[in-house]
């Protein structure tokens, strides 16, 4: 069994609907253990694009992390995601990234291949990943970077977290 923290994001079309789609599909693929709140977040990395909706999920299942990656990419495709070769961080209907994964004994699963890096190589730089992650794993540690709670409290991350808007009226939970 593996437990995976997913970051989901959308900044094209009906953002809430795209996140709900990701939750519904991942709940079909594994056991949905926790769902964070939804945040509206300023675009990171390429600022000339609309704001994102972001959230985090914790899902468990018998899959390998490589199988989870294929599932995540399949879900992005089903949501109509188009990849733009010329633009690194282009707007997208749905992004489903593996942030971190854990074996049954709680040990982090590490990968460093061209297809899959675990933990996600940019996780420690992204408020839109770290803040929702804390809601699904309050005692999370990011291998190589320490406690996630410490990361979100330290500057400049704390300022970026303050720029995120919690949207409690947007619910993602599946029935
Ligand atoms: N932890 C990971 N989660 C998702 N994709 C990963 C991961 N590690 C490596 N990848 C690889 O990254 C490639 C690019 O993925 P994608 O197009 O979703 O990137 P992005 O979302 O635009 O940027 P970023 O990966 O920085 O969030 C994928 O082909 C995938 O194989
Ligand atoms: N706020 C925000 N910015 C981003 C996001 C995202 O999900 N949210 N995803 C990106 C590529 O993975 C690049 N930039």
TrEMBL record:
<keyword id="KW-0289">Folate biosynthesis</keyword>
<keyword id="KW-0067">ATP-binding</keyword>
<dbReference type="InterPro" id="IPR000550">
    <property type="entry name" value="Hppk"/>
</dbReference>
<dbReference type="Pfam" id="PF01288">
    <property type="entry name" value="HPPK"/>
</dbReference>
<keyword id="KW-0547">Nucleotide-binding</keyword>
<feature type="domain" description="7,8-dihydro-6-hydroxymethylpterin-pyrophosphokinase">
    <location>
        <begin position="6"/>
        <end position="138"/>
    </location>
</feature>
<dbReference type="InterPro" id="IPR035907">
    <property type="entry name" value="Hppk_sf"/>
</dbReference>
<comment type="pathway">
    <text>Cofactor biosynthesis; tetrahydrofolate biosynthesis; 2-amino-4-hydroxy-6-hydroxymethyl-7,8-dihydropteridine diphosphate from 7,8-dihydroneopterin triphosphate: step 4/4.</text>
</comment>
<dbReference type="GO" id="GO:0003848">
    <property type="term" value="F:2-amino-4-hydroxy-6-hydroxymethyldihydropteridine diphosphokinase activity"/>
</dbReference>
<protein>
    <recommendedName>
        <fullName>2-amino-4-hydroxy-6-hydroxymethyldihydropteridine diphosphokinase</fullName>
        <ecNumber>2.7.6.3</ecNumber>
    </recommendedName>
</protein>
<keyword id="KW-0418">Kinase</keyword>
<keyword id="KW-0808">Transferase</keyword>
């Amino acid at each position: 069994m593996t437990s995976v923290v997913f970051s989901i994001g959308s900044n094209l079309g009906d953002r809430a609907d795209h996140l709900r789609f990701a939750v519904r599909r991942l709940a079909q693929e594994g056991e949905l253990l926790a769902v964070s709140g939804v945040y509206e977040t300023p675009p990171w990395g390429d600022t000339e694009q609309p704001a994102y909706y972001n959230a985090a999920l914790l899902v468990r299942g018998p899959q390998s992390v490589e199988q989870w990656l294929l599932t995540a990419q399949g879900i992005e495709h089903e949501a109509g995601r188009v990849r733009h070769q010329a633009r690194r961080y282009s707007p997208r209907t749905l992004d489903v990234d593996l942030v971190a994964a854990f074996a049954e004994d709680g040990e982090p699963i590490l990968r460093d291949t061209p297809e899959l890096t675990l933990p996600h190589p940019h996780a420690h730089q992204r408020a839109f990943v770290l803040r929702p992650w804390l809601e699904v794993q309050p005692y999370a540690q990011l291998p190589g970077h320490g406690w996630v709670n410490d990361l979100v409290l330290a500057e400049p991350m704390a300022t970026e977290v303050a720029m995120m808007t919690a949207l409690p009226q947007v619910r993602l939970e599946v029935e």
